[in-house]
Amino acid sequence: MTKSHVQAAQHLLRLLTLEQKIAMLHQHAPAVPELALAPFRTGTEAAHGVAWLGPATVFPQPVGLAATWDEDLITRVGEAIGREVKAKKEMDPSVSLNVWAPVVNPLRHPLWGRNEEGFSEDPHLTARAASAFCAGLKGADAGTWLTVPTLKHFLGYNNEHDRSLTSSNLSDRVLHEYELPAYRQPIEDGVAGAVMLSYNLVNGRPAHVSDLVNKHLRTWTNGGSVVVVSDAGAPSALFRAEKYFPDGASAYAAALKAGVDNFTDDGDNPGPSVSYLEDALERGLLTVDDLDRSVLRLLTLRARTGEFGDHHGSSSTSAGESDAAATVALAREAARKSVVLLRNQPDPHLLPLGNNPGSIAVIGTLGQRVLSDWYSGTLQNECGIAEALSRRYQDVIAEDGLDVITLRSVRTGTYLGLPSPSETTDDDGGVLVADTTSPAVGEHFTLKDWGSGEFSLQSSLTGRFVAAGTDNYLRASADRIGGWVVQETFRLVHSHDGTVAIQHVASSQWVRVESGTGSLVLASGVEAAADRFVIRTIKSGHHAAHAAAASSDVAVVVVGNDPHLGGRETQDRESLDLPQSEQELVRIVQDANPKTILLVVSSYPYALGDLADLPAIAWTSHGGQELGPGVVDVLSGDAEPTGRLPQTWFARDRDLPDILDYDIIGSESTYLYTRAEPLYPLGHGLSYGDVQYTNAVVSSDPASKTIGVDVTLTNQGDRVAHELVQAYASAPTHQDHFPRRLLVAHRRVELAPGARITATLRIPVERLATFSTVAEAMVVEPGEYRILVGSSAQRLPVSVAIQVPDRGQRSRRIAGTWVPARLYDTKSNIDLVPSQPLSGTAITPADPFEPAWAVYRKWDGLPITAVNCEVLSARTGKGFGDCSISVQTSGPADTWLDLGQCQLKEGYSGEVGIDVDPSVLPAWTASGTLRLVLKGAITVQQLQVT
User: Which of 454, 441, 443 is nearest to 520 (CA)?
Assistant: First the structure.
C-alpha cells in the first residue's frame, strides 16, 4: 500500500457525510455525485477464471492449479484473470475490481464439498500458491493494483452440512500451525487486499464476530489495511439462523467492531443493513470512529486500483488476437502441468502413447464433455479429451458407455418424449409429453448415473438435459447440469414389479403425466401418487463400451464427477468411493482390453479399491477449456508429466476422521499426522523418467536461519525427467506432538537421460516451529530433527539428521501465573467455547455425561499447595448430574495420580481452590504435568497452581 492511496482515501473520508459513510458499508454502495464517486460493489468471483460475467478463459480448478506446484505459472494465470476482470470492467463499469479469490482454507478433509476451490492439504503449500495467485491478480505495477484479491474464508471452514450452525473447534496449535499460515503469507507479502469471513462458528462464536480478526489478522504486516467482507447473508444469520444476537443492530455493531468492514446481505438492497447500522449508532452500540475505520479501508481498497487518480498503470487491458492466443496457450499449459500420472506399470509401460499407439477408444461421458463448476466462467471453444485425441491421432472412437432408454407411463400407456414441432406453442415452451404409443428418437433419452442415487436424462434428439422449470413442467432445455440449485437430476425409485417412479432431486416432487395435456409435470405428495414408468433399453451402454474397448488397441476410460453434483458448495460428499456405475464401467472396459488407461477427471480424490491395479492411471481436475489438449499432451508423451498431488488420496473412508473434527492432531488426520497407508500420498506423481535418490547431506550450519540439504539424484530412464524433489521433517523425540512428516521444502529439477545431479534444498529453520502453549508463540524446539527427501510424503528414500542447538530459551509454566484453559497440550472430550460472547475462549466437556480432561505440561515442577480454577458456569440440572473438578499429575507407566478434587453446586461461577495432597508432590515435581478432569457441565476459563 502506497502513501498516496491512504492520503486519497483520507481526503475523501473527511468529505463524506454520516449518511454516505453508512451507505458505503454495504456490498452495493451508491454513488456520491458531489464527490465524483461512482457506485461501487465488492466482489467479482474469479477462482479459476472470471465467473458469472459471460465468456471468459476458464483455467483448471484451483486444486488443479495447485497440482502444478508451479508458482510462476499460478502467478501468470492470476494475472491473465486479473486482466480479463479489468477488461470486463471497461465494458461494464458495475464490475468490481475487488476479486473474491482465492480460497485458502487448507484441504483438511477430502469429503468437503468445496474441495475443488482450495489449493492443498498443506497450509504452507496453500499459502505459497495463494501468494502466487494473488500476485498475478494484483499485477506487476507498483503504483496501481490490477485487481484487489480477497482471501476466503476466515476461518476453520471445511464442511458444508449445517455450515452456518456448526462450530470448528480450533486449539491454539491447530490455529497457529494449520489455519492461520495460509492467510498470513499473502497478507504479509502485500498481495492480498481483502479477506472474506466464513459462515461457520469458531470455538462456539460466529466467525463474523470472532475475536481472531483483531487478535491476529489485524496485527500482521499489512493486516491493518485489509478490508474484511462478510460472506453472503452471513450478517443476518447472526441474529436469525445462529440466534447469537437478539436483533440486527446488535449483530451489525458487534460484527463491525470485530473487524467486518463490508456487509454482503439482502442482495443488492442496502436498506436493511443501513437501517441496522443507523439503529446501532442511535443506541450507542457504535461510534462514528468505528464507521470511519471501515470506510477508510474500503476507500483505500478503491484507491489501490487507481479509481481516484489519473494513474492507471497496469489497468491497460487492450487485448488483441496475440493476447487472446497467449491466454489460450497459458490455459493449455496450466491444464497440461496439472495432470498427475498416478500409476504406469512397467514391462511394458502403457504411457506415453507415443506416435503410433494404434486405434484408441475413449470411453465414458467425461471423455467427450468439458464440465464447468459453480465458480466457472462461460466456457468458449472448449476441447474435450476425445476431440483432442482425434486431433493428435487418426484412429480414435468415442463411446459414452451410457444406456439409451425410453420411459412408458403405466397409467397412460404412452412414452415420454419431446413434443412435435407442430404441437409446440409459445405457452408450453417445449414441455415434455407422453402422447405416443410408438417411441421414436424423440422419445429416446440417455440415462446417466452420477452416484448417490442421482440420474440425468438427456434427449438423444437435441442433446439437452431434462430440467424442471419454475412452473414445475419438465423440458429438455438445459445444455449442461448446473445452477445454484440443480434442476437436471432425478431419482429412479424402483418397485417390485419392475417399474420406476421418478423423483426430482431438488424439489423432492414426483413426475406425473398431466391429465388432458399429457405434459410431464412435478407434483407434491408421496411416492404412491407418482406415475410409474417402464424402462425399455434401446442401447446398452455396457455392451457398447465393451465392444469399443475390444475393437481398439488401447482403451482410455474416463470417469469422475460433475462439479455440481455429489460434492459442491452446500453439499459434502458421503464417501471417497468412485460411484458404483463408474467402477463397473471401468471393469467392463478392462475385461475387454487389458491395455486400459484409467483417467480420473474430478474435483477431489477418490478411493479406487482394486481399480488402483490398472496398468496406467492419471488424474486431472476439471481442467477448463483446454482440458483435452492438456491431457493429451501428457498421455501422448509430447510433454512430460509434471503434476503432483496437492493432497492425500486416502484408500478408504475409515481412514478419515469425522468431517466436523477439526483437531487434526488429536484425530491424527491429514498427511501431517495420519497413520493410515494412503492410496497416493501428498506430492505423489510419476514422470516418464526413472529418477533414483542416492544420498543426502547437510550443506550448511543448522544453527543458521536456513538449512541447506544437498540431494543426489540419477535419471536411469531414457527420457528427460522433471522431478519435484520434496523434503519433509520429522522429530520422533520432540517434546510435543510434532507431525509425523512435515513438508518443509521442495524444488523442481530437470534431469537428462542418464544424468546425475545434486539438488540443494533450502529449508528455513522457522519451518520446524510448533506452537508453544507455554510461550504462546511459534517456537523451534531444540533437539534432533530428521530431514527426509524423496518424491512424495510416502516415498522418502534418503534422509539426514540435523541438530537444532539449545539456546537456553525453553519456557516453563510458572506457579502463581494464571494459564488460559484453552492452552492445553492434549485433551479428550473437550470443546472450546466463548468465555464471553465477543471475546475469550474457555473449555467445557463436549459430552457432559462422559469423562473429559485436558493436560497441561511443562510446569516448573516446584512444590505446590493448591490448584485454582476460574469456573464460568456449572450446571447440575436437566439431568447433567453432579459437577466436579479433579486435578492429577502423571505417574509411572502412563498412570495418573490424584492431586485433589472439589464438587461444584448448581449455578456456581467464580474461583475454586483445590488443595493438593502432599504425598503426590514427588510425582508432580518429576513430571511437571497437570491433568484437569471435568465431570458434568462445567466451563473453565483459566487455572493456576500455587
Answer: 443
List CB contacts of 93: < 8 A, sequence separation 6 or more.
38
Q: Which residue has the cell 414445475?
A: 472
Using an 8 Å Cβ cutoff, are 819 and 813 in contact?
yes
For cell 497440550, name the residue: 825
What residues are paired with 539 via a beta bridge?
404
Between CA 343 and CA 600 the distance in angstroms is 12
> For 339-352, how does the pLDDT look when each residue is reduced to its tens digit (9 = 90+)?
999 999 998 999 99
pLDDT mean over 606-630: 98
Q: What is the dihedral of CA 914, 920, 923, 924, to 10 degrees?
A: 20
* Rounded CA separation 700/762 (Å): 9
The answer to whether the beta carbons of residues 771 and 172 sit under 8 Å apart is yes
R_g of the chain computed on alpha carbons = 30
Q: Cα(469)–Cα(504) distance, rounded to whole angstroms? A: 11
Q: Is the pLDDT of residue 701 over 70?
A: yes
225-259, pLDDT tens digit by residue?
999 999 999 999 999 999 999 999 999 999 999 99
Coil, helix or strand at residue 804: strand
In the structure grid, which three cell numbers stand for residue 643, read together? 503434476
d(CA 157, CA 198): 6
Please check whether residue 474 is in contact with residue 467, taking contact to mean a CB–CB distance below 8 angstroms. Answer: yes
CB 392 within 8 A of CB 398: no
Q: In a 3-state reduction of DSSP, which class is residue 152?
A: strand
Closest CA to 657 of 673, 641, 642, 643: 673
Count the Cβ atoms, other than its own, within 10 Å of residue 736: 17
The answer to whether 527 and 533 are in contact (CB under 8 A) is no
Contact residues for 144 (Cβ-Cβ < 8 A; gap 6+): 304, 305, 306, 311, 312, 313, 314, 315
Distance CA 503, CA 485 (A): 15
Rounded to whole angstroms, how far apart are CA atoms 344 and 618?
9
